[in-house]
Amino acid sequence: MMDILSSFSFQIVAIGTMILAFACGVIGTINVLRQNSLIGDAIGHAQFPGVVLAFMIVGTLDALSLLIGALIFGAFAFFVIQMINQYSKISLDASLALVLSSFFGFGMTLKSYVQGSSAYGHTGGIDDYIFGQAAYMLRADVNIILIVSAISLLIFIFNYQRIKIFIFDPVYSHMIGNKPTVMNALILVMTIGLIAAGLKAVGVILIVNLLIAPGVIGLMWSKRYLYVTLIAGFSGLVSAFVGTYISTAYVGFATGPTIILCLSAIVLFSILFGTHGAVRNGLMRRRHAA
Fold first, then answer.
1. pTM, whole model, 2 decimals?
2. Could you tell me which of 143, 154, 159, 155 has the C-alpha nearest to residue 197?
3. For residues 132 and 79, what is the distance between their CA atoms, to the nearest angstrom?
4. Lesser CB count within 10 Å: N end or C end of the chain?
5. Which has the closest alpha carbon to 202: 168, 250, 243, 245?
6. What residue stretch is flagged as signal peptide (predicted)?
7. How far apart are CA 115 and CA 123, in angstroms?
8. Angle CA(110)–CA(111)–CA(112) in degrees, nearest 5?
9. Structural domains in the chain plus CATH codes
């Protein structure tokens, strides 16, 4: 065990995934409580063509360039979703599905073109952004995760009361001067940034789980928002550490999916045995019925 913990490669991957999972857990509670969880899924898939286009322009898998490409396409996808939802009769879930499939299909088409062309050289690393490849994270990737997570958490901390009011009483929030456009922009910046930073770690397919699952865990154990965010953040952090350790100790276990499996196990346990879980609620109903 100590050999693994003292390994430099393990430490790099563990630090990166733990920071990312903690930040995603905290920020993800906003979208869970606002019932906008699938927006993260749509944005994550929509960022993939931005990654491929950035590679085509730069010519290398430079972490910062790919992050910028992902951010641009994530913001553009959100704008498209809002336009469809506002100016058409298409429902939000339908517009999310349209954007998700269209953008991701565009990204896969670009990937096929790039990998089939001799002009771009080695392109195997692009696949890492679909399913994630945390085991091959570099210090530059961890630095980006650290910077983006720190910015997102600082935005959250400095606007905690405003965000809290906006989540639970948007009408009152607007009355006291919190403009919905500004609040939505803050939430969008935090969410898109974390998704873009975490693409290499867990991929576009699984990144949404890091944003949703910790929030669900938090809600199963508390109804106080501060406690929900702390439980969500630390459940993500613990899952990242355990998942990274398991994938390092046992050959053949991919780091990203293993982290998601650990997080899913905590979700299942919380749904069953949490303070507000199924078992406790069932016992309470029986007592009231008696």
1. 0.88
2. 143
3. 26
4. C
5. 243
6. none
7. 6
8. 90
9. 2-204 (1.10.3470.10)
